[in-house]
Structures are given as C-alpha cells and as structure tokens.
Design goal:
The complex is a heterodimer. Chain A is an all-alpha fold. Chain A contains seven helices and no strands. Helices cover 35% and strands 20% of the residues of chain B. The chains are: A mainly alpha, B alpha+beta.
Chain lengths: 169, 301
Amino acid sequence: MHECIDQFGSLIWSIARRLTRTRADAEDAVQEIFTDVWRSAGRFDPNQGSEKVFVATIARRRLIDRMRRAAHQARTESTDDIDSLGWADPGNSAEVCAEASAAARAVMQLRPEQRQVLELGILQGLSHSEIADVLQMPLGTVKTMMRRGLIQVRELMGVTNAASDGVRS
Amino acid sequence: MQNPRLVELLVQRAVDGLNSSERAELKQLLSEEKYVDAGRFEYTAAALLLAGDVENNVPEEMPHSLRERLMAQAETFEASMSPPPRQSSAQPRVISIAGRSRSATAAPAVSAPPPSQTAQRPSRKAASWQGKVGWFAAAASVLIALAGWWPRLEMGGDPTVETPAVASTLEQERQQLLAQQGVLRRTWQTTQDPASSGVTGDVVWDPRTQNGYVRFRGLQANNTNELQYQLWIFDGTRDERYPVDGGVFDIPPGQREVIIPITAKLEIRDPAMFAVTIEKPGGSVVSSRDRIVVVAPVAAG
C-alpha cells in the first residue's frame, strides 16, 4: 500500500486539488479516495485497462460524492483558484497512459460547444445545472450534449465494454 | 444497452452523481438488464480527466504531512483486512472498530500468533510482484488470498489452531495508553434512548498516536441481523454534519464489560465528541442520529 501511495499519490492529489475548493478539502478527499482504492483493488484487472484510469475513476466518484454534499457552496468561491483547463494533443509523452491519449484525441474531434460541455463537467467538476447556468443553455440540452459527447468519445477511443467493468458500485 | 433512462442515469452518475432515489432506480434498472457496461461513462470521464491538464502538467507533489497520514492510514487499513480469529463458543467475539476480532473474555494468553498474521500482509514475494505487474495485481492477489482465508476460519478451520485470548491484553493496552501524557479520557453520558439505560464506561483517546479504546458496561447485546452499534468521532476541524466513522461493532451477550480498540478511519485533528449510535447492520455512511446511545463530549472532561 505504501507503494500505491508513492505511485498514485501525486495523481490523486492533482485530481483532488482540481475538483475541490480548498487544500484542506483536497487532503480530506485524498484520504477517502485511497481507502476506496484499497477496497476496490481486488476488482482491478490489468488486462482490461490501466491502473491510472482505474484509480482516476474511483477518485472522480468520491469527489463527485463530496461535491454533491457541498452543493450549496458555490465552487466559484474557491479560495484556491485553479487555472483554466482544457484538452490538448498529448503527443507521444510517456507520462500519458494510452486511454488518456486516446481520450484526448477523441475529444478534439467533437464540436467546440460539445467539447466545452465536457470540459466544464469533467475537468472543472461543474454539475449539469451549473453548466447550464454558465453556458446559458437549457438543462436538457446540456444533458443531451454530455451524453452524446461521452458516447462519441468512447466510440472514438474504441474502448471495449469489459474495460470499464472493473469499477462498479 | 437501449434503455434511455438507464443511459441517462449512468451519465448522471458519471458527471453529477446520484441521489438515493436515483441510485435505487439505477440498481433496479441494472438488475433488469442482461448485460450492461455500467461503468462505461465513468471510465470514459476518468480517461478524459487524465487527458486534461492533469496529465499534461507535472503533477503537484502532495504535502508531506498528508503523505504521512496516508502511510498511517495504510497500516490501519491493512490491519483491518486481516481475517478474524476462529470463533469459540466459550469466548464471545468482540468485533473491533478496525474490523479485527478479539475475545472479550479474560482467558489465558496464548503466545502463538494467530493464523491471520501470516495472511494479512503482502509477503516479500508479493512485494516483488509489484515491480513486475503493478501494485494492483499484487494487491488483488492478497485480497483473493484473504477471501480464501475468511470462510475457512469462520467455519472452523484448523482445529489445532487456538484462538488467541487477548482480552487481558486489551485492558493492559488501555492502561498503558492511559499512562501516556496527553491522553484524553471521558466518561460516557447517557441519553433518552432506551438502549442507553444503565450504560457506563469511557473512551480513551491519544491524539498523538490516533489510538484509543471505548469501554462499556451495561450496553445491551445486539442482534447483528437487526442492528449494530457504530462509533462516531466529531472533529472540530471538520463539518459537524459528517463526523468521522469510528466503525461498526457488536456487543456479545453475557459480557459485564467490553473493551474495543478504536481505529478512526480519518485523522482526528481536534476531537470534540465521541458518540455511539444504533444503525442498521453494516452501519451507515451518514447516521440519521435517530438513536444516539451515549456521548462523550471532550469539553466536558
């Protein structure tokens, strides 16, 4: 488990910092995420995907849960601002896992407005409602764009269904 | 997967999360489908997250203090994964907050280590796998090994292996902890709950080592099929609505006094109050607080 902390600590910390309001929130979240990761380790199948995506999936789930709890606290009031985010072609960087590279290339093929919805929801952690407010779009439109965007990215990534079966509630 | 509502809920889960009714609806819909890739959108979203600047920038190192806490947390978790000793009818089991099981009776100590000690930690061989096939594969192997141990132990296992008697050790450990400087000791205060009647005891907590014990006299034995007790620790630095889960435990019948070691799931930075509630079997993530059995405010000490 210590090796797990060494291996994924920075990744989880980075994700937590991105999707929480303060460093204190991020620290609490990281502790919860590691517990979830250890509990879920038995479901990981190295033949069906990378450890990074598995860990990131668990981290996101926990962070979304925490965001729901803090739904009344606007994330725009963050005391620790995080720079604007976005996707870019990862090139051939060895630091980027295969799924992330495929996802980056896939999302670049989406229409700009669709990409923006995914960016706000996934990279900035906004809810459907918050995205609708930010983009001045009907909620139903946001949900549709999100759903279609995820489906398209998935298809473009060429992910097999079995690959995402490891992390289930 | 054709059901549009099912797709909608899976996307919702991947982006916003679900409330309890939506989770129930999703569970129902999933049970009706022959095959559904339930994690598809969460997986895709995670890949997209990694594809963002998280991966394009040099990841920020987590604070050293957090890393230290995680290391301690790992030790606690690893200990909680150890299988329980084989139960004996003569020695009622006390389920510890860490998930370990200990005898509540003052039986003679047995020096031989429990069989679990050989199974609870990854072996050197397992550790050597980690460099080859990754931490998860090794961890999965350990968990599978543990899964193999548990049923055998619960059903009796090797009759020549004695259950270690540790009740006297627990009391000794508690006394040793009490002798340390800076250790808190607070007595339980009863409530209006019927289960609270006649309950006495105390909680001992060492903020420095994050260890402690709860002791009860007169706390009713519980039917584990109907309810379990759960300890909560209120931390002054955290949201009062979400006390730290201290774990679920049972009180076996016929015990005059029960001591249970505390292993908090998260670091307790500023202990404000300890409380025991009655919860459904398995405990709760967030207690409804309908049945609070005893409390021990730290300020009352």
